Input
Amino acid sequence: MKCVVANDHGAVELAGKMVEHLRKRNIEVKYLGVDKEESVDYPDKAKECALELIDGKYDFGIVLCGTGIGISIAANKIKGIRCALVMDSYSARMAKEHNNANMLAFGGRVEYKEDPIRILDSFIDSSFAGGRHQRRIDKISALEG
Output
């Protein structure tokens, strides 16, 4: 399995933990993020990560900023990206099973009620359910024009 990860200055610590965890799971990681808290524009990181993912070399992507909101909005502007801002294991699992999300967003300054690593694992360990959900994914894709 392969993953591409990008973050801005608002999620340096969480991004580092996620990259380390992914590698421990033997997931190949391309890291496009920053490791310093000097200001970086999250739309640039979202675009960079999304374009790598769309290129087809990766199974999924992860983007992180202070809240996860801005970077998820920016990532979802790229055709073919279905980026889910997840807050718990249930939403992460449903993002994959029902929405076939190919990217997750997290916030480095968010106080999660559940360990974000556990949330990430829930996504990784889930599969797209297909069936009626594929019809809905097709409708989402049609919105892209």
